Amino acid sequence: MGRVVVGGALAQRPGYGGHAWALFNYLLGFRALGHEVLFLDRLAPEMAPSAAAKRRCVGWLAELMEAAGLEDSYSLFLGEGEVGLSRPAVLERVKDSMLLLNVMGFIDDEEVLAASPRNVFLDIDPGFGQMWKDLGLHDAFAGHDAFVTVGEKIGEPDCSIPTCGIEWVTSPHPIVLEEWPVASGGTRFTSVGSWRGPYDPVEYEGRRFGLRAHELRKLIQLPSLVEAELELALEIDPADAADREALEEHGWTLADPAAAAGDPNAYRRYIQGSRGELMVAKEMYVKARSGWFSERSIAYLASGKPVLAQDTGFTERYPSGEGLVAFDDLDGAREGIEGIRGDWERHSRAAREIAAEHFEAKKVLGRLLEEVTP
Asked: What CATH number was assigned to the domain covering residues 3-174+360-372?
């Protein structure tokens, strides 16, 4: 077995337990395959503009790595030095690795990229980067040798995401099942996310590809149409106060995202204390027919929690109807919730089976390594 280096943004997002799990599942999954792992991160001054912010970011990453048993297998580049492994040690390990899996191209250190025998771009936000590149706005893909995306329909006739002349390897997110055992109980359908997210909508070929907010607004009447309790741990900017009020007026329960997902353990408890997930995707993923499927939804499935998910085209890849139920509109969401409520035990069993069959980390990552290594 060899070494796999994973590069990504983790220190910059203290208090985001779900984001931490998204990266953990890659690191722990590669380790479960028998590979040594190394995690690389960077913290530029603008990412932590004060000394207090910097301490919080550094402390957050150190705590996460220790909790994952990776305290000797990470490095955070600070510009003036490193936390964790030193630069010479990092360069030596990178040079002796199989590849660098660079999440969204976040690691841009030229010396590190030059030392790596193979730089693999991992796209976890499909559509945005490809459209930016095709429009001549930004190229996140330069400097890489292979390209992986969780937008599993890219290149197909009904998918609006441009390939940009790149031969994309498609792969779902992995999950380490041992970290996500089946959990009983829960009364509410829940989810965790942001109302908007970090990007603006994209105008591409005469169409606008927007955000989760644009899809949630279409479902705002849903709580009044079902018997189930619907709760969102939703990060909403104060500028969107009118949307928050509208959600609450229509019967949505809004949980504090810091309490629900402020660290990896809280995030796992929140998911495993749910009845199931109502997954609303970004408009980009839906309108582009991207085939995207959330790593958060996979965690619900693994926990034996049925998922009602807005269809992005993923139904062409994964079974839908039991455990994982797709919907397209308000009526479909209503029917999906009532169907899951009517036979929850059957849906719960099917949810875990889907996670084990299609998203188990060793299967997913073993296949990914085969496809991106010569």
From this structure: 3.40.50
17 in Cβ contact with 117 (< 8 Å): no
Question: Do residues 272 and 199 touch, judged by C-beta distance below 8 A?
Answer: no
> What is the spatial distance between Cα 89 and Cα 339, in angstroms, rounded to a whole number?
55
pLDDT in tens, 22-56: 999 999 999 999 999 999 999 999 999 999 999 99
Mean pLDDT of successive 10-residue stretches along the chain, which has 374 residues: 96 97 98 98 96 98 97 95 97 98 98 98 98 97 98 98 98 98 95 94 98 97 97 96 97 97 98 98 98 98 98 98 98 98 98 98 98 94
Dihedral class, residue 155 (left if φ above 0, else alpha if ψ from -120 to 50, else beta)? left
Length of the chain: 374
Bridge partners for 208 per DSSP: 203
* CA-based torsion, 101, 66, 234, 238: positive or negative: negative
Q: Is 238 helix (H, G, I), strand (E, B) or coil?
A: helix
pLDDT digit string (tens) for 79-96? 889 999 999 999 999 999
Q: Is 11 helix (H, G, I), strand (E, B) or coil?
A: coil
First-last CA distance in the chain = 16
3-174+360-372 with 177-358: one CATH topology? yes
List Cβ neighbours of 164 (8 Å cut-off, separation of 6 or more): 130, 133, 134, 141
Which DSSP string corresponds to 308-332? EEE-SSGGGTS--SSSEEEE-SHHH
Alpha-carbon distance of 122 to 172, in angstroms, equals 11
Residues 196-205: tens digit of each pLDDT: 988 999 999 9
Short-list 154, 189, 166, 167, CA closest to 290: 154
Burial of 199 (0-12, 13-18, 19+ CB in 10 A): middle
The CATH number given to 177-358 is 3.40.50.2000
The tens digit of pLDDT for each residue in 244-267 reads 999 999 999 999 999 999 999 999
Residue ranges per structural domain of the chain: 3-174+360-372, 177-358
